[in-house]
Design goal:
By secondary structure, this protein is an alpha/beta fold. Helix content is 42%, strand content 16%. It contains 18 helices and 19 strands. The chain is elongated and about 85 Å long.
C-alpha cells in the first residue's frame, strides 16, 4: 500500500515535523535539495548548463538550495527568481542570503527565453497553489515547456492542483518529479498525471502523526490481498454469485460479468435474465446456472428465492431501463441481506428514483462511469472530472454506499474509510464491456469472503493490472473485454506462484 496526500495533509505533516518534533524547516529544505541533486546526478539529465526557476515560497527555497549544491559540484547553474519578493517566506529569504555568499548568478527579472539551457529545475510553485496562473508567471511556464531542456519538477510540477490534478492556467511538463515524503494526489489523477513524468518519492524526514486519507496499491500488495483458498473445500466454499443482467437480445454484459466472476474463483454463478437469452448464454458459458424470466411477468417469489440462494448479487449490466428493471431492483434492495453491486442500467434506474436506496439494509456497491455519476448526482461530467475524489466521497458518505467511480484513474470511496485511487490500467481498456468484467470480478472476490470494503479496491487494481498485461501482449488498440477475462488466469497464477 502506498499513501497519497492532499495539500492540507502535507502542510500538516510539515508543520508537525518542524514545530512539534523540532526538526527545523531549513533542515528539511536542505534534505529536499540533496534528494533532487542526487536524482539530477544519476545520469538522466544533461547538466552542461542548468537553470533553476524559483518562486518566493518554500518551493523556491528548495530550488535555491539545489542551485547552491550544484554550484559546489562545479556545475554551471543560474537562478531565475520570479514573483513578488515581498511574499518571500523566511526560509527562502535565508536561502537567498546564503546563495549570495556563494556567488551564484541570480536574475530577478523574468527570462525572455530558456532555450540555451540543457536542464531546467522547476521550483516555481509548490503544493499550495490554488489559483490560476496568469501574466508573467504564465509566460515563464510556457518558456520552460518550449525550452527543449530536460525538466525536473521539485515536489510537484508548477501549475498542477495538488488535490485534483487540474491545470491551473498552465503547468510545467516534467521529465521527472522528485516529491517529498508522499506522492501527492494531484499527479496521480488526470490531467496532472501527464505532466509529472517519472515520479521519485524522497524521504527527507517528514513525520506523519496520522495516516493519510488516500491510498493506492502496487504489485507487491496483490498476493496478500487476494482471498485464501482452503484445500478442504467444495464449490459452495467459494460462494454463489447471482448476476441479474441482460435484456431482450442483449446478453453480452451478462456473459462478461458471469464469466469474470467464475474466472476469479467464485464457486457458483447464476444468471437471472429474460428467457430469450437462455440458449445463447448456455452455449457460450455452459458452467453457468441460469434462471430465465418472462418480460413483464416478474415472479417476485422466485426472485426472492434466488436472492436467498446467493452470497452476492450483481444487478444492472445490459438490462435496459424498463418497468422490469425498476421492479427487480426494488425487490433486490428490499429483500437482500447480502452485498449488492449496482451497475449500468440499474444505476440509471436508480438515478430516476434515488429513494430506492432507502430500502436497502445491506452493503451496497455502485460502479458508475462519469455519465452515470452525472445522472446520479445531477452534476455535469466536467464538474465531476475536475473533482473525482470529492464527488465519489460525498456520494458514498451521503448514501452510505461504496462508490467505485470509474475513470482513467478510478476512485473507490467508502464511508468513514480512506479513499482508494487506482494507478493500474490503460486506455486500451476504454472499450465496451470492460465495466461488466470489473463488476464480475468484484462479485467473485466478495463471494470468496473478501469484505466488500476490501474487494472493491482490490478488484479495481486487479482489473487494471490484467489490462496492463493484456496491453503488452495484444497492444492497446486491439483489446476486448473478453481479453481481460482471458488474462485473469495469468495474473492470479503468478500471484499464487510468487
Amino acid at each position: 500500500m502506498q499513501y497519497l496526500v492532499t495539500s492540507s495533509e502535507m502542510k500538516h505533516f510539515d508543520t508537525q515535523t518542524s514545530q512539534t518534533i523540532g526538526l527545523p524547516s531549513l533542515v528539511l529544505m536542505e534534505r529536499a535539495a540533496l534528494a533532487v541533486v542526487e536524482q539530477l546526478k544519476k545520469g538522466q539529465f544533461n547538466l552542461h548548463k542548468v537553470a533553476v526557476v524559483c518562486g518566493y515560497g518554500n518551493n523556491g527555497g528548495d530550488g535555491i538550495a539545489i542551485a547552491r549544491l550544484l554550484k559546489l559540484q562545479h556545475i554551471n547553474v543560474i537562478i531565475y527568481l520570479v514573483g513578488d519578493p515581498n511574499l518571500a517566506s523566511p526560509e527562502t529569504r535565508q536561502q537567498i542570503n546564503i546563495a549570495q555568499h556563494y556567488n551564484i548568478t541570480t536574475i530577478t527579472q523574468s527570462p525572455k527565453t530558456l532555450v540555451n539551457y540543457t536542464t531546467i529545475v522547476d521550483a516555481l510553485f509548490g503544493i499550495g497553489l490554488n489559483r490560476n496562473i496568469t501574466g508573467d508567471l504564465l509566460q515563464i511556464i510556457k518558456l520552460i515547456n518550449q525550452s527543449n531542456a530536460d525538466i525536473l519538477a521539485v515536489d510537484i510540477p508548477s501549475g498542477i492542483c495538488a488535490d485534483t490534478g487540474k491545470i491551473l492556467g498552465a503547468a510545467v511538463k516534467a521529465k521527472q518529479t522528485v516529491t517529498f515524503a508522499y506522492q501527492k494526489i494531484g499527479f496521480t489523477l488526470y490531467p496532472g498525471h501527464e505532466f509529472a513524468g517519472e515520479i521519485i518519492i524522497a524521504d527527507i524526514g517528514i513525520y506523519a502523526d496520522k495516516k493519510p486519507e488516500h491510498y493506492t496499491y502496487n504489485h507487491h500488495d496483490l498476493a496478500r490481498l487476494l482471498p485464501d483458498r482452503q484445500n478442504y473445500s467444495n464449490k459452495g466454499s467459494f460462494g454463489k454469485v447471482l448476476v441479474i443482467a441482460g435484456s431482450q437480445n442483449m446478453c453480452g454484459a451478462a456473459y462478461l460479468s458471469a464469466k469474470a466472476a467464475y474466472k476469479v474463483g467464485a464457486g457458483l454463478v447464476r444468471i437471472y435474465t429474460p428467457e430469450c437469452n437462455r440458449d445463447v448464454l448456455l452455449s457460450q458459458l455452459p458452467e453457468v446456472l441460469l434462471t430465465p424470466y418472462i418480460p413483464n411477468q416478474i415472479d417476485s417469489d422466485q426472485l426472492k428465492q434466488l436472492i436467498n440462494w446467493a452470497s452476492v448479487i450483481v444487478i444492472g449490466p445490459g438490462m435496459g431501463i424498463s418497468t422490469d428493471t425498476h421492479k427487480i431492483l426494488s425487490c433486490v434492495l428490499a429483500s437482500a441481506n447480502i452485498p449488492i453491486i449496482i451497475d449500468a442500467d440499474a444505476l440509471n434506474t436508480l438515478a430516476n428514483d434515488i429513494d430506492l436506496l432507502k430500502q436497502a439494509h445491506t452493503t451496497i456497491i455502485i460502479t458508475p462511469h462519469l455519465g452515470e455519476m452525472a445522472r446520479l448526482t445531477l452534476q455535469s461530467i466536467d464538474t465531476i472530472k475536475n473533482n473525482l475524489v470529492a464527488t465519489a466521497k460525498a456520494f458514498a458518505e451521503k448514501n452510505q454506499v461504496i462508490c467505485v467511480l470509474k475513470d482513467a484513474k478510478t476512485i473507490v470511496a467508502t464511508p468513514q474509510k480512506p479513499t482508494y485511487i487506482n494507478q493500474s490500467g490503460n486506455n486500451g481498456m476504454a472499450t465496451g464491456g470492460t465495466g461488466d468484467v470489473l463488476t464480475g470480478i468484484i462479485a467473485g472476490l466478495i463471494a470468496q469472503h473478501l469484505p466488500a470494503t476490501q474487494a472493491a479496491p482490490v478488484s479495481v487494481y486487479l482489473h487494471g493490472l490484467i489490462g496492463d498485461a493484456v496491453a503488452k501482449k495484444l497492444g492497446k488498440h486491439s483489446m476486448l473485454a473478453s481479453d481481460i477475462i482471458d488474462g485473469i488466469s495469468d495474473i492470479l497464477n503468478n500471484q499464487t506462484l510468487s
